[in-house]
Amino acid sequence: MLVAILSLSLLALALGLALGFAAVRFKVEGDPLVDKIDALLPQTQCGQCTYPGCRPYATAIANGEADINQCPPGGEATIHALADLLDREPKPLNPDNGVEKPKTLAVIDEQTCIGCTLCIQACPVDAILGAAKQMHTVIADECTGCELCLPPCPVDCIDMVPIEQDIMTWKWSLPEVEQVRESDQ
Amino acid sequence: MSRRLSKFNGGVHPPQHKTESTRLAISTAQLPKRLTLPLHQHIGEPAQALVQVGDHVLKGQQIASANGYVSSPIHAPTSGTVVAIGEYPIPHPSALNADCIVIESDGEDRWGERMAVADYHDLSPSALRNLIREAGIVGLGGAGFPSYIKLNPGHDKVIKTLILNGVECEPYITCDDILMRERPQEVIAGLRIARHALQAEHCIIAIEDNKPQALAAISAAARDYDYIEVVQVPTLYPQGSEKQLIKVLTGQEVPSNGLSLQIGVVSLNVGTSAAIQRAIFHGEPLLSRIITITGNGVDSPRNLETLIGTGMEELVSQCDGDPEQLGKLIMGGPMMGFALHRTDLPVIKTTNCVLSYHREQMPAEKPVLPCIRCGACMDACPVELLPQQLYWFTRSDELDKAQDHDLFDCIECGCCSYVCPSNIPLVQYYRFAKGEIWIREREREKAELARQRFEFRQARIERRKAEHGSRRKQKARADKQRDAKRAEIQDAVERAKQRREQAMKQAGQWQQERGDDKQDNTQQ
Amino acid sequence: MTEYVLILVSTVLVNNFVLTKFLGLCPFMGVSRKLETATGMALATTFVLTLSSVCSYLVNHYLLVPLNLEYLRTISFILVIAAVVQFTEMVIHKTSPLLYQVLGIFLPLITTNCAVLGVALLNVQQDFGFLQSAVYGFGASVGFSMVLILFAAMRERITAADVPVAFRGPPIALITAGLMSMAFMGFSGLVKG
Questions:
Q1: Which of B63, B142, B245, B468 is most buried, by CB atoms within 10 Å?
Q2: Is the Cβ pair B450, A177 closer than 8 Å?
Q3: Is the distance from CB of C53 to CB of C131 less than 8 angstroms?
Q4: Does residue C65 belong to any structural domain of this protein?
Q5: Scanning every residue of chain B, which has its alpha carbon at the shortest distance from the alpha carbon of A38?
Q6: How does pLDDT run across A122-159, given as a tens digit for each residue?
Q7: Mutate which: A1, A3, A5, A7, vs C, most C CBs within 10 A
Q8: Is the reported ipTM for this assembly greater than 0.90?
Q9: How many domains does chain C have?
Q10: Dist CA B72 CA A21 (whole Å)
Q11: C64 contacts in chain A (CB < 8 Å)
Q12: What is the pTM of this model?
């Protein structure tokens, strides 16, 4: 009886020591997983996922606090990519966070703009050019369509305009038979 | 013709339908009243308009200049007036409009200035290439790649073989065949110019064995030149595809995602060669090309020398077809062409064929059945890809796997769709997948840029806060110092005041004392 | 020498732990959705199985048998296996955090993988020596890995295919596993006994 207890305790102790040593030897710093998740997000920094930016959302996903279907600008493509990375089942976009909309750009109506710089301070990627009492304008190439500039504008002079398709941005669509099949499912 | 030919995997033998349009010789299409010239008829950046509405232009005058390195200028195909510059319908699978210059011809067909070159040997390859560029010559085989770039291999590359592609493997199309039959000297002359521009060693002209007259004509014209080899290749689709032809003629394969330049080979279409000859020997830019008008929608299928920008309906009428009775028009052939959304579109530099279907003689719609995994597509693929796997990957949105299976090496020849027993439109899946991958990559790059801008902005805000913080502290310190100094000064002033008061009080006291003394003194 | 080859062939093909003995089905079904995770899991299980097979032999031979503590076999084996799995977890967390995140709960669940405990106990039952135990453990893990990877590759293809709605996911996976098991029965005549 005593022998049994002693020998088991000894075994446990030996294994525990080995594990303790291994824990120190294989300590992990930081979290590279967050970087990988962040790389898949669209970087609009819009906050529709309820987190203040894409990196906090990525951290939340890595910690298991957030689900992968909370990003409307990323849409289905991002959900699939995240599901692929984390080996989870892809889900439809959570309607509480928004809906997937076609890509839009912000355009400032120059007749109405009063040069207050509130939108410049709101833009997360510095896509608005201007200064106090000077004309403000959105740099189309840098605008991500996050819509964060719309609420601060006191004269409501910013419109979200859908991006026009021309022959340079046009792409082939799936054959009709496939589109029908998708809508059946 | 003792060259040992190799083979490529697969390939199909669709019914050729070539004899319909070779019964008649080349005729010149009638001068149209209106010409619509899209600014984007080539691979690369669209050209930029040089003229304005109302300008009168002469035949051969440059009306749009090349924009950047990979681009090509556009010239007025006939004399007339520019009536409009704007967005008009163009022959493109998207059915979208694009920028065009519209010219109304004045019927005179008057040439502008033409600068012919007497002996091209006097010109350096670089000068020759510039002339070819200014003549607006692009690949007339269907791709529309600016030819002067193809003729510029760079300083370090030696071009051993220049191939002229007279194969024309696609059914229905006969424009190259008839060009070789009727104008072989033009083809050979253009070949010699291209050879000089490339400084190539050896030239091969490849012709399929279903074109015996063309072979005879070209062989006769090339007889005097020992560096030109005329080779007959077996009829097989897609023998005329550049990479497949190079494999057959030289036994070498162009590396995956690479260019034929990398193995010292350049290939040109015979039509492009004839256009080069016209540009250099006659100073004529690319204004017209031979187009095959065929199909059951026209009663007299034939080849027409057509001005670029002519409406397709006019060409159909000139071949005894009724535009009202047309069911479908295809630009190109039945394998690689695309259906047009209207019948009144203009022909462009890369239009090699207009395939017309009468409304009541449309090709039968075949129902699409599920894939039975038979593997016939794999056997037929000339690039030795796995079309079935690409199909499954595209369907399940595993596009990165599709890319790993060499999706971008697919030449979209249509052999796989042709042999599929379930009639699955395989090429459409691959075109979709390629477009989707490009778009996703572009979005990823954009997102990365946005992320960098965001992080930089955050860093800037933090820095400013830190600066403000330290500046406030500095100001507080300065204030304190100033206050301390002021307090010191105040103290000193106070002390001085006190001292003066003291002194005044003392002085007053003394006066009083002296006054008292004096009084005392007087009283005594 | 032939004895070890026989053990290997037996554990990998004839008496495959997953398809013939039906042990270790939990990770087999749970981790086989993607090929990369399946490969990672296979390597982890190989490491755990071989190491714990050896360690449990040592514990049994030098601690339990001399002290007549055979009745403590199960608990001490589990102790050894748990420690080895913990160690493996730490190594994976350090070398591939993505694999660590993706394997998730299945990594510590290797502890309860009946194939691991099964190998340890079968070693004792078949009275194997040190080297035989090691080869037996290694062979079992190779068999497990092979089947896991094959199954994952098949499942990837099945996800892309036209499966009827009622069968999508676990049902078609189980049917496929059953068919694989039947196929592996073809090896039954390979090794006598």
A1: B245
A2: no
A3: no
A4: yes
A5: B451
A6: 888 888 998 888 889 999 888 888 888 888 888 888 98
A7: A7
A8: no
A9: 1
A10: 70
A11: 7
A12: 0.82
